[in-house]
Specification:
This protein has no helices and eight strands. By secondary structure, the protein is mainly β. A four-stranded antiparallel beta sheet has the order 1-8-3-6, with no helix packed on it. A four-stranded antiparallel beta sheet has the order 2-7-4-5, with no helix packed on it. A hairpin with a 3-residue loop joins strand 4 and strand 5.
């Protein structure tokens, strides 16, 4: 289990390769708005929203807004994930 305090400035992108098999991310927006996408879905989230998505495929978190965005991200990797 990993916890992150994520801040993205306008236009900022966090691009990630796929993590270990079965890994999930949980992203909760505290300020601003973010766009989350992977190979299966794309979703915009705002303050108070939580996106839960597969992170064992390439995925992206992007701030398309005009102000900075802050979020808490929890990465859950199953034991023995490859």
């Amino acid at each position: 289990t990993e916890w992150y305090d994520l801040v993205l400035e306008p236009g900022g992108v966090l691009e990630s390769e796929g993590h270990g098999r079965g890994t999930m991310e949980h992203l909760t927006v505290l300020d601003g708005a973010l766009n989350v996408r992977n190979s299966q879905t794309e979703r915009g989230i705002t303050v108070g929203d939580t996106a839960r998505y597969q992170a064992d495929v390439p995925h992206y978190i992007e701030n398309k807004g005009k102000t900075s965005a802050r979020a808490l991200m929890v990465v859950l990797t199953p034991p023995n994930a490859v």
